[in-house]
Write a structure and sequence with these properties.
The structure is a single chain. The protein is mainly α. The protein contains 18 helices and 2 strands. It has a domain of about 230 residues. The protein has a two-stranded antiparallel ribbon with strand order 1-2.
C-alpha cells in the first residue's frame, strides 16, 4: 500500500468552519499579516531586553539563578506592551474610574482618540502611494505633496475670513488643490519625457520642505507675536471639529473613511480605475487597447497628489493649527509603509494606518511610563513591513501551507 503526503481535498459538502480551519495555517494574506505583526513584537521584546541594563545584568548569572533573568525579562516586556495597549486602545483603570464616577468619559476614550488622530493623515498619504502603485508608479513624493497641502490649507485657514463649515471646506479644498498641483508636475514629466517619477518626487520633497521653511518667516505669514518660525494660527472656523478637552480626535478620521470608500469605488467601479489598473499591469498592452498611457500617468499623479495634500490639510487643520518647519512630520514617508502593509488596497491601507496610529499612540505612553524609547516602535513598524514584503520568509518560519484562497472564498460566498 502506498502513502501520500498530499493534503486531502475539501469535500463538496464541507462547512465554512471546516474550510476556514483548513486554510487558517496557510500562506494567505491575513495569516501572513498577522504572523508578521507577531514576529515584529517578538523582535521588539528581544530589543527591549538587550537595551535594558538591569535586565542584561541578570543574564550575567543566568546559570546560577535563571529565574531572575526570565522574571525580569517578562516583567519588562509585559509592562511595556501593557502600556502600549493602554495608550492605543483603552486603559482599564480609566474605564473603572468612569464606571464608578471618579473619572470622566474623556479619559476613557483618550487612547482610542489618540490612535485615530495619528491615523487620519496616514490614511490619505497611504492611499496616495497605494493608488500610484496600482497604476505602475512609485509616488515617493507624498511627503512633499502633504507639505504643500499643509501650506495651502493653513493659508486659506487664516487668510480668508469665512463662516464656520464653509471655511473648513474651503481650507480642505485648498489643501487638495495644493497636493494635486504638486503631483501634476511629476505626472506631466513622466508622461511627456519619460522622466523617472521617483527622482522627480524626491527632489520635489526637498523643494516643498525648503519652501515651507522660507514661507513661515515671511511678513504676513509669520505669527507677529512670536519670534520663532511659526505661522499665524488657523482660524477656529477653519479647524476640523473635535470633541474637545483631552480628546483630540476630529472629523479628519471621518473624512479619511469616506475618501477610502471613494478610492475603492474609483479603483474597482470607474472607467479611470480600470484604465489605471490596465496601465499598471501592462502599459504596452493598455496602449494597444486604446488607453492613453500618458494621460493616465498624469491624472494618476494628480489624484495621488491630491490625496496626500488632503493628508497635510487634515494634519494642519485637525491638530497642528499652525505652520512650523515640522508641521507635516513624516506622514508622507510613513504613508509608504502604510500602503505596503495594506498591500495597496484601499481598505487594507485604512487598517494599516490605524495600526500605525495605535503603535504611535501606545508608544508615547510606553516611553513615558516604561522608559522604552519611542524609536523602538519605529523599529517594530519597519520589521512588520519587512515581513509583509517577504511573505516567503514568514511562510518558511512558520511552515505555512500553500493558500487555498479560492476555495475559502467560494465557501464564504455560499454563506455559513
Amino acid at each position: 500500500m502506498t502513502t501520500t503526503t498530499e493534503e486531502k481535498a475539501p469535500e463538496k459538502g464541507d462547512s465554512f468552519a471546516a474550510t476556514f480551519l483548513r486554510n487558517l495555517w496557510s500562506a494567505n494574506t491575513v495569516t501572513v499579516t498577522v504572523l508578521s505583526i507577531v514576529l515584529a513584537l517578538v523582535i521588539g521584546a528581544i530589543l527591549m531586553i538587550v537595551s535594558d541594563e538591569d535586565v542584561r545584568a541578570t543574564f550575567g548569572y543566568l546559570t546560577a539563578r535563571p529565574s531572575d533573568a526570565f522574571t525580569s525579562s517578562w516583567n519588562l516586556i509585559s509592562t511595556a506592551y501593557a502600556d502600549l495597549f493602554k495608550g492605543a486602545i483603552l486603559d482599564p483603570a480609566a474605564i473603572s474610574a468612569w464606571a464608578d464616577g471618579s473619572g470622566g468619559w474623556q479619559a476613557a476614550i483618550t487612547p482610542l482618540s489618540e490612535t485615530l488622530t495619528y491615523a487620519a493623515p496616514l490614511v490619505f498619504t497611504g492611499l496616495s502611494v497605494a493608488l500610484a502603485f496600482r497604476g505602475g508608479l512609485f509616488n515617493i513624493g507624498g511627503q512633499g505633496q502633504a507639505v504643500i497641502g499643509c501650506i495651502t490649507a493653513a493659508v486659506a485657514g487664516f487668510a480668508f475670513p469665512l463662516p464656520f463649515v464653509l471655511h473648513a471646506v474651503v481650507a480642505l479644498v485648498a489643501g487638495l488643490i495644493g497636493g494635486m498641483a504638486w503631483g501634476f508636475l511629476p505626472g506631466l514629466l513622466k508622461a511627456r519625457t519619460g522622466a523617472h517619477e521617483v527622482i522627480i518626487t524626491i527632489m520635489l520633497n526637498y523643494i516643498a520642505g525648503l519652501f515651507l521653511t522660507w514661507l513661515i518667516i515671511q511678513k504676513g505669514v509669520q505669527n507677529a507675536d512670536r519670534s520663532d518660525a511659526i505661522s499665524k494660527p488657523v482660524d477656529a472656523s477653519a479647524q476640523l471639529a473635535s470633541i474637545g478637552g483631552p480628546v483630540r480626535v476630529n472629523l479628519g478620521i471621518v473624512l479619511a473613511v469616506l475618501v477610502t470608500a471613494g478610492v475603492a469605488w474609483l479603483l474597482n467601479r470607474s472607467v479611470f480605475g480600470f484604465e489605471l489598473r490596465a496601465v499598471g499591469a501592462n502599459p504596452a498592452a493598455a496602449k494597444t487597447a486604446g488607453i492613453s498611457v500618458a494621460k493616465t500617468y498624469t491624472l494618476l499623479m494628480v489624484v495621488a497628489g491630491g490625496l496626500a495634500g488632503l493628508g497635510g490639510a487634515t494634519q494642519v487643520l485637525g491638530t497642528a493649527h499652525a505652520l512650523t518647519p515640522a508641521v507635516a512630520g513624516n506622514i508622507g514617508f510613513d504613508g509608504l509603509l502604510v500602503a505596503l502593509l495594506g498591500r495597496n488596497r484601499p481598505w487594507g491601507t485604512l487598517g494599516a494606518a490605524i495600526l500605525f496610529g495605535a503603535l504611535r499612540a501606545g508608544g508615547n505612553r510606553m516611553q513615558s511610563f516604561s522608559g522604552i524609547s519611542l524609536e523602538l516602535v519605529t523599529v517594530v513598524q519597519a520589521v512588520i513591513v519587512v515581513f509583509i514584503a517577504a511573505p516567503a520568509l514568514v511562510k518558511t518560519i512558520f511552515h505555512l501551507r500553500a493558500a487555498r484562497s479560492a476555495r475559502l472564498g467560494a465557501s464564504m460566498a455560499k454563506g455559513w
